[in-house]
Amino acid sequence: MEILITYLTRRQKGGSVSRKNEERSSETVHFGRSTNAEVYLADPRIRFEHAVIHQRPGGLFVEVEKLSDVRVNGQPTRSRPVSVGDVIGIGPFDITLTEPPEGKDIAIEVELVRPLGDDYAQLVARSTVRLADYGLRRRLWSWVGIVGVLVMFLVMPIVFYSQHTEEAANKTVGTRFDTAWDSGPISASHQFISDQCNLCHQKPFVQVMDGACLSCHAPVTHHFDTSKPELTSVPNFKKMADDTCNTCHREHNGDKELTINKESFCIDCHRDMEKTLPQSKIKNADVFDQKHPEFRPNLVSDAASKTFKRVALDNPNELLENSGLKFPHDVHLKKEGVRGPKGKETLECNSCHQLTRGAESFDPIGMEANCERCHQLVFDPRRPDRTLPHGQANNAQMLIREFYSDYGLRGGINDVQDPVADSERRRPGGQAPITSQRQTDPKAWADSQAKRVADQSFGKTMCGNCHEVSTGEGKGPLNWAVVPATVNKSWLPRGRFDHSAHTDILKCDSCHVAATSKKSSDVLLPKIAVCQSCHGGEKVSNKVPSTCITCHDFHLPETPRMGEENKKPSGREGQATLPQESLLITGKTD
Amino acid sequence: MQERVKIAIVGSGPAGLSAAGRAAVAGVSHVLLEQRDHVSDTIYKYQKGKLVMATPDVLPLRSELTFQIGIREDVLATWEKQIAGLKVNVRFNSEVTGISGEKGDFTLKLSDGTTLNAEYVVFAIGLQGNIRLLGVPGQDREWVQYQLNDPDEYSDETIVVVGAGDAGIENALALTRQNNVVILNRGGEFARIKQGNLTAITTAIEKNQLECIYSAETVQVDDDGIVVKTPQGETKVKCDRIIARLGASPPRKFVESCGITFPNPDPSSLPELSGQYESNVPGLYIIGALAGYPLIKQAMNQGYEVIEYIQGNQLKPADEPLLEQKFANIPGNKSVSEVLALIQESVPLLAGLTTLQLREFLLDSNVHVPRGGDVVFVRNDYTNSFYSIVDGEVNIQIDPEDETKIIALGKGAFFGEMGLLSGRRRTATVMASKPTLLIETPRRSMIKLINSVESVKRVMDEVAVGRQIQTYIAPGIPLPDLQDLIRTVKVEKFDQGSVLFREGEAGDCLYLIQRGSVTVSREVGGKETVISYVAAGNYVGEMALISNAPRSATIRAAVSVEALRLDGIPFQALMARNETVRRTIEARYRGRMLENIESTEQPEAGGIIQFLIEQGLGEATDVLLIDEALCVRCDNCEKACAETHQGTSRLNREAGPTYQTIHVPTSCRHCEHPHCMVDCPPDALRRNANGEVYITDSCIGCGNCERNCPYGVIHMAAKPPKKPGLLQWLLFGRGPGPGQAVSGKWGPDSQKTGGSPKKAVKCDMCKDVLGGPACVRACPTGAALRVEPSEFFKMVSQGL
Amino acid sequence: MHQSILIFRNYRYLKWALIVVALSVLLYVFHEPGYGTPNGGTWLGYTLGGLGAVLIIWLMWFGIRKRRYGAGGAPVEDWLSAHIYLGLALIIVGTLHTGFQFGWNVHTLAYVLMMVVVLSGVFGLFAYVRVPELMTNNRRGMTLVQMMHEISDLDVECRDAALALGDEINQIVLTASQNTRIGGGVIRQLSGEDPKCATKDANRAIQHLAENAPQEQAEGYRALLGLLARKEELLSRARRDVRYKSLLDIWLYLHVPLSFALLGSLIAHIVAVFFYW
After folding, report:
1. Tell me: the pLDDT tens digits for A481-513?
2. What predicted TM-score, i.e. pTM, was given to this entire model?
3. Cross-strand bridge partners of residue A75
4. Could you tell me how far CA C118 lies from the centroid of its own chain?
């Protein structure tokens, strides 16, 4: 049959249509990619042999080859008759049967209605070749970043701060936004208030004020007497007086910096006191193991008048402790021991010197506590239960006299067995004469007895043994007097020394040579060299690094309190005020 | 009976209208013949809303019609109203096909077959020529247009482009971007078109982007489409618009057919006219663009004047006051005519000019009266104006080292012509030696003069040759001594790529490059390798003459080159005679020897030069290069360019070729002879003293420069509205970011009321920007580099 | 001809940076804090902190400066060079400011952010120095757009070449041309490869079919395979190009947002420090 094939190409947007005519003559009309198909459909979506139209007695028939996609007027089909006006959809093509012109049996219009489209445009559409096109947004994330951070770490804490000040403490750390502001660990000692920032940080943007500290640490005093204008007029002193607590005491650094601990801090002024404060008598001090002055213990210069004097240990001539006592350490510390109530016993330092429980220093030595066990004040062997009162010389003499008067009156006067009488021995070979007055005058006898016993116990056996005694008319009821003793309590009043910290590793005699000390006027303190053998300045490498405050206090007890700069220093409970030179504690006396 | 008028005015452009208007007022019988169905077609075809300039502002308008700067629509409307008011006798749709007869009795043949008689004929036909029409019924439907101003004006239209010439194809391709285009091709294939266009159109057709109907004859234009006759029979192509680009017949042929002669074959030359616009054919007058007055105002004035002249009235030309002004500072206040006389008798170069030409010449020119010692221009300026000495004397310092070396030029001489030729920097400093009277003429009006006045051209050439030899080869030698050398000089032109001479040839001459530039190449390892680049103002070929050895290298024209061929013998004679010449030349010789040796050491440098020459750097004076080894593709250069120039970037970083790591982006090269300057109606393209070629605000957006630029670095763009500040974008993304394609709200839109019209934009080297080119300043990694090619080539041959 | 941003102006800004670093380190070494270890609270701490803050602000200003095209003063190249070296110097200055005290707080957060920003910048620098040349070599004078154009042209050619071959082939070719994609997600772009590239699969499949193809079709197969091979090669180049570009860009998506996060934490840090003084 004669076939007229018209290929239509329509411009998109329903523009013009251009037609290309082709004439064939064949029995069947094949559609497909095959080049010998009558209707050559160049499109990958078309099969090699896609469909065919037969001329049949019944008319035209479209038949589908294999499982191809063919629709007649939209209806998928395998085989069916077609006639003029039918639209056969083959893949992307529309095949329209039109009225054949003269001499043609069949006329076909072929149009590609679903073109593949612009490959480039599609490729571009499929591809994403720039990060920005993928949706990364710098501006957005920048905003998220800055706003997020500001809200979390600036706004929230401030909001929290503004309303948490009232119900301060009962906030638990978890809900506290300003913990993000915490610049470091709180010292152990303040840990218990670590969740109440506003206790110390009372006003925003204002450094922590002394008030905050003093509300707890009320009694803290200054380093010098700030009430003295001549001192506060010196710039450095002025600054020292004005500096706030947190200049030296820094928090949020754990424990290590709670207190300033640099020798330079002290040395800067103390290395050259002439410059710092010309009128001062304080000696220059520098790094401990290099330029620290020799210790100057506070010694009793005169026991009677209770006067003290500071003498440097390197000044042997004046180095005497005139306590008014006689105590030979060597006698007491004999290896073979000394006679005690229960026979021989060997004494150690701590037999007498007991560390005060929990304290750095020792219990004061006292007659009752330390001596009496051996040195009992028994004056009459017949009455060991009667002892003389210690520290009361006159009472003791009265007691002796009264004792013998009473004894005589009770007839002791005639008692031949009287050991006391024996004391009046007849000369050797002679018979004991019984004198007449012995029978006649008991008073005189009692007096003589008392006199004798007093002389003996005051002069030799008892008081005089340890104390300076003197005798003479009117000195006392029986003409005896005891010079009052003065026992030093603190030899180094400015320094602090913790014996307990040393006793584990050191013996007493490592520092104190007592075993050979014969006189109680000996000063048994070790020289500074002894300390320096172990202790050095803060930068020392082969010794124990020690700064000034290891032994010395900054806040001196006898100065005005912080915040009360102009008040005169006043005594303070718990802390005796020191006179400028020494710390004095007197023994009991009347 | 045949119509008869006193004056027939051909062409209803500004000149014609004005003439007709004057005639009407003067009551002279006249007819105004217009081939279209509307007046002044040229302006009519301007793009919608386009601004019509009224330059020169100073020139007073002398016409019955009014005219001032305004948009196309208003200007046309006023004129139509006025000619109606003045009862001007216009005849539309009547194209003049021929003129016969002589003064007093001319016969004009019209396209509709009728003829008419006139005593005088005034040509005001302009230069546009007659655009060929479809020549079928319906060809004048308003949706049939014969030119396309802005393809982006139309979108989603079905447009039929008739004519498969370059113009038609370019239009069609441009239109397919937004429209449904059918192109009608008379032939069975595309013939006689640029290769680029051919490939473009064929691929477009393959890609089904546009439809082409081959061997199609247009039958007629209906209301809704165009009927086309093809071998398959007639079909009708429905369409919304028809654009016919069938070319135009240039007016010159027609004008010559009327017996008017032109001074020389140069297409830009214009017929010689008397002071009263009368051509060599008595009674036949020429005004307007064809008379060399492209500006509307001038044309209108002439229209008025020519009528007066024809009636025998004398009147001072309208430019009288202007000239008076220009001459004001000339000592001993002379009248205009006196000054004109003085100039003509004292400057032989200008002696041959008609007063008309002279007036024109002087209108463009400026008069200077430097005192002794005043500097006129300085060496290495990029100014390219031309000076003639009316009186006094100037000294030219020819030797930069030694100020005492001078050539004195006296009354009647001229200088600065080298700028006209080479388009390069000034080669010498010129200062007045005593009180002097100078006329400074801008390059383009001088060139216009050279092309239209034979005598001027001749004199110029002669002197120029001598001068160049003096400047470049034999400094400080008086012209007379050079005569026998000059006599042998021939000016030779070479197309790009053609050879001046080959390595190994016998050398019998040397070439002084007068215009363009050449490459020097040698056989290295069996293949020709460029070793260096020689710019205008230098000479090549001296080596062979000195050593009498064969040529040591091949010289090719890097761009189209104009060179002076100096014969060998007299040249050698000159060297023999003159010590200094010999020494300079020999010094140069040694330099070249060195170059040759270096070249063999690093051929890859030659490769780069070769490549850059291919990219047209041969004619560049300043070019943007990108070192891709450093370029991080941040496009900051483009953004910088866009931001410093109203949002449109003048450079495209990615486009453009790359050699090794040297990338040449498409950006302006500021050519020695800028192609863009060639025809710019308002003379908006300028070059300033530092060499930047830039566009002034007087641009009318005609797009000539865009078409003329071979490097595609000029675009038409409208100024977009002011966009929000940088911080607003940075922080909130308001408005387009730096260099982002602007569209919609912030986009430019010339249709939008108040939107600014499209104007040409190009790189101006950021001449007004602090610290130089923004692209280079904005490059974070220093990959962008602006260089003068000659320097760059030096860098290259010294091994980067 | 040009010099890398690193040796720019003969290391001028490296020298500046070194001076800053040297000064900071010296001060830090010879500085005697009033007591204990150094930290942000000493006068040196405040000095270094201030310096660091000023540096950060100045470094961030680069983002604005490089977009202020009219601006006079030093060209952007100077700014970038300085940005790089002073940015690196910031590591030292910032670290010294901390006095090596870190904790779970906003102060350390600021420090960490600072370090991350600087490090991302270091990566960027690396990319800027390394990638451009690779990119150029990979492109061989073609732009990505040109590559994609050529690829889609090849698609058409492939389909035409396939028409004469079996239905199966046509199916494969069609899917290849309709499913091939370049780039994609961030990972895909950075990797520069497409593990399940439709074209590659098609190529393999057709090679397989070609082995036992009828003689008369051999020529057609060869042509088709040739086209597919070219397409594959182009694809891998295009993907590599995408990879390089993304390498040049990706770090900025860390650098910039984190800079702003840093700015935020910096403000918070400063306020916090003086709020609880």
Report:
1. 888 888 888 888 888 888 888 888 888 888 888
2. 0.73
3. A72
4. 13
